[in-house]
Design a protein that fits this description.
Largest sheet: 7 strands, parallel
Helix content: 25-40%
CATH superfamily of one domain: NAD(P)-binding Rossmann-like Domain
Radius of gyration: 18 Å
Bound molecules: nicotinamide-adenine-dinucleotide
Shape: globular
Number of strands: 13
Low-confidence stretches: none
Strand content: 15-25%
Strand order of the largest sheet: 3-2-1-4-5-6-11
Number of helices: 9
Order of helices and strands: EHEEEHHEHEEHEEEHEEHEHH
Structural class: alpha/beta
CATH topology of one domain: Rossmann fold
Mean pLDDT: 97
CATH class of one domain: Alpha Beta
Length: 305
């Protein structure tokens, strides 16, 4: 039985990861300050412990493995706390790296496709350095995550810590907040209520959307591998935002109409992972179709609203 710390374990992805690692027979310590997480995601299980702690402050717990997922991930959330968001990525990651160093623990850093910014190459390969605005409204998240990757690389080089970096692309599924503000949760809730579906810009911007169970399997495979990364994890099936909206309207049989709003500053126009590395090095690729994932997510939101 491994003792595993999950920072951000009361959030959307973290809650699924905690559950899977518990089911696999591990002891799980969820460290979360509930900034964007939910108390209903805290699990009642004999091998699970919840610690309310802000990772921008040091912590001292001896564990075998650390997953760092703590950081607001939805633009709606990090627009509310831009300075704090950078602190969480930079100081929070530093604290967890120092913890990994102290107890010789393995550590996985949840990075993001946002490190590629508004990408000039498509699909995005891990070798692409990105096209990120350093001073825009999204920079707190993008640059915070980029700096966290730098910390991880230097801790590996200087201190030989067993570190893994994954770059997560848009992920969706149950346990997202109703007010999360990301595209899938917004569209499903609007469609269930027969309200207008709000699209920022012309809706031609594309996204690749991965169901959370696939993503969690990828995170665990990465932790158990010899790879440092960074490795892209995401579903390479690409849809325009318009296609996503129409698919959700159809699956729900909703009366919602599309409503176009001004585009968001620095919103990436395209987004699609190249997952050759994940396939070759981790033997990982997504298995859950978009329709199947959407149906499970719609079922969850029906009970939430
Ligand atoms: N969901 C996605 O599509 C996606 C895409 C790319 C990367 N990621 C990364 O995956 C991770 C999890 O994303 P998510 O979608 O589950 O987001 P989320 O907001 O649901 O979860 C983040 C969790 O971290 C906690 N947290 C935030 N600041 C903290 C702090 N200072 N100390 C302790 N806990 C703190 C929050 O309370 C929350 O429970 C994030 O690091 C995010 O950047 C997610």
């Amino acid at each position: 039985m491994k003792k595993i710390l999950i920072a951000g374990g009361a959030g959307f992805i973290g809650s699924h990861l905690c559950k899977k690692l518990l089911n696999d027979g591990n002891e799980v310590i969820c460290v979360d300050n509930l900034l964007t997480g939910q108390t209903k995601n805290i699990i009642s299980h004999k091998n699970y412990k919840f610690i309310n702690h802000d990772i921008t402050k040091p912590l001292d717990i001896k564990v075998d493995e650390i997953y760092n997922l703590a950081c607001p991930a939805s633009p709606k959330q990090y627009f509310k706390y831009p300075i704090y968001t950078t602190k969480i990525s930079v100081l929070g990651t530093l604290n967890l790296l120092e913890l990994a160093e102290k107890y010789n623990s393995k550590i996985l850093q949840a990075s993001t496709s946002e490190v590629y910014g508004d990408p000039l190459i498509h699909p995005q390969i891990e070798e692409y350095f990105g096209n990120v605005n350093t001073i825009g409204i999204r920079s707190c998240y993008d640059e915070g995550k980029r700096c966290a990757e730098t910390f991880c690389s230097d801790f590996k080089r200087e201190k030989n810590i067993d570190i893994k970096i994954v770059r997560i692309f848009n992920t969706y599924g149950p346990n997202m907040r109703v007010d999360d503000g990301r595209v899938i949760s917004n569209f499903i809730i609007q469609a269930l209520k027969n309200e207008d579906i709000t699209i920022y810009g012309d809706g031609k911007q594309t996204r690749s959307l991965c169901y959370v169970d696939d993503l969690v399997n990828g995170l665990i495979k990465m932790m158990n591998s010899e790879c440092f990364g960074p490795i892209n994890l995401g579903n390479p099936e690409e849809y325009s935002i318009l296609e996503v909206a129409n698919k959700i309207i159809k699956l729900i049989d909703s009366k919602s109409q599309l409503k176009f709003l001004d585009a968001i500053e620095d919103d990436p126009k395209v987004r699609k992972p190249d997952i050759k590395k994940a396939k070759n090095l981790l033997n990982w690729s997504p298995t859950i179709s978009f329709d199947e994932g959407l149906k499970k997510t719609i079922k969850y939101f029906k009970t939430e609203i």
